[in-house]
Design brief:
Number of helices of chain B: 20
Oligomer: heterodimer
Order of helices and strands of chain A: HHHH
Order of helices and strands of chain B: HHEEHHHHHHHHHHHHHHHHHH
Strand content of chain B: under 5%
Distance between the termini of chain A: 53 Å
Number of strands of chain A: 0
Shape of chain B: globular
Structural class of chain B: mainly alpha
Helix content of chain B: over 70%
Strand order of the largest sheet of chain B: 1-2
Strand content of chain A: under 5%
Radius of gyration of chain A: 20 Å
Largest sheet of chain A: none
Distance between the termini of chain B: 30 Å
Number of helices of chain A: 4
Amino acid sequence: MRGILHNINYTVAALLFLMGLYTVLVKPNIIKKLMGLNIMETSVFLLIVSIGMVRDGNAPVVTEGVKAAQMVNPIPQALILTGIVVAVSTTAVGLALCLKIHETYDTLDAFRIPGRQEL
Amino acid sequence: MSASANHPVLIVAVPLLFAALCPILALWKRSICFPWALAGVGVTAFFSWSLIGKVSSGKALTYNLSGWRPPWGIQIRIDTVGLMMACLITGVGALLIVYSWRYVTHDIKPERVPYYYTLLLLLITSMLGFSITGDLFNFFVFMEIFSITSYALVAIAEERRAIRAALKYLLMGATSSLLVLFAIAFLYSVTGSLNMVDISRQLAKLSPGFVPVAAVALILFMVGFSVKSALFPLHEWLPDAHSIAPSPISAILSALVIKMGVLGILRILFVVYGSAFALESTSWSRVAGVLSWTAAIAIVAGSLMAIIQRDLKVMIAYSSIAHVGYIVLGICMLSSRGMTGGLFNILAHAMGKACFFLVAGSFIYKHGIRRIQDLRGIGRTMPVTSGAFALASLSIVGLPPSAGFIAKWYILWGCITRGNYFFVVMVLLGSLLSAIYCFRVVYYMFFTGRAARAEPVDEVPATMYVPAALLSAGTVFMGVFASLVLPALSGAARAFLIR
């Protein structure tokens, strides 16, 4: 129990990831699946940023009297900015596909779109 | 500093620049996209082929971007496998762009054509970057770029079924990318570094409390890259996406993009988690064991599914699943001969499968034929295209003197060295099943249909049958002259296994 509370960032990230994965797998609406994908992405970004956190840390800007060890690690923040850009691109392509699916099949229900064999 | 010192970064920078300028140039004149794309890949091919001879199995060619030394800067690290992939990507990419010139007029709306070439150039850029980078996060970013461009390229022809196939590919691919990112987060948290070689040094002396974190990260990496390479239980996206995409895109997806997943498995298992980590934790060899079992099942399951298909492109897509099984089986046998076979099969299968899809595309372009039984007698009216298919099928089945034979021989040798006779049986069974589905097509093409009457030869345009013919001739050439590449690959395999 103490292990879970000590590593609460890992636990929360894993739970959020699983919730997002559940949404992608179970919900029939495609927009909800894309939202589940975004929840998964958010969980990973949360984990990455929380790894770089320093308790009562300063911003990672060179100032007088602030030692490097007191600053929050800027690398994870750069990583998740890149990751957010990637997530936005994936969501954009996904939403464009949603538009096309709605135009073609007039439904957004993933279980009602005919499969490869049925066409 | 010699003039060629900057070639490593130019391999990625040049096609990226060409891709960025492509839509802008298309506003001026749409017909310039094809020569522009071909020029871009041609210049990149010059840069990547110029590095042959500078990379040896013991020492990879490294290049620090902007001069920042690792682990603070991003490092490009070109080892033998990376160089082979770079040369393969530029070579096959150039042939596919030549093929696309006529094919896009059949499938894609004219106002979309500039975006097709842009996305294709971005795909080539990102695959090149993925093959040569030495930094783990750079690895992830390039993986995302090739994934997103392939989702878009599958759907670009706006065929009804393509949209659904692209969505399935997107959902599965994006989930797997997130698994890889999760794993990178874990590795960063226990090692504090993002450079692959630096991480492997840190993992060798990891404190025991952190070993489970690294082991979980390994498993997440493997699952993520298994989806990307369509390894057996996670292959469901491949038949739809590869069969419904426009044919040159199917070719590049099957020939190159799924090999990126295999390259990911290779880099993570052998470069990042070297054998030093294997001594610390038993999870490494267990992971390799599990992967070899799923690969063996993939070989037989993929081939069986290919036999029952009626659509030509779906059959070829299932055959890709089987061949990824061969490659991963060779790599995970943990013997230098098996790994040489797996790496050589990347080369052989890329050329053979690209030829298959180009031929299938030629049939669709000329006659609209998608089903195998409609191919009766087409060997008479389209001899070069059908002949290319027949020649490439030697490589897919694994018959001498093709490159596929050499690859399977080495994989079998690796399995026998390891004493895994069950895998020997699976590989041989896979070859037999491949013969069934490949030669059935050859039978329909050449040995049935209207006889006697001399039908006029009515081929596709030359820019479409020449790439297919070159690729199939390439499989035979690489089979006969395998000694050009095999020593380098054996050296690379041994270097991977002793790290």
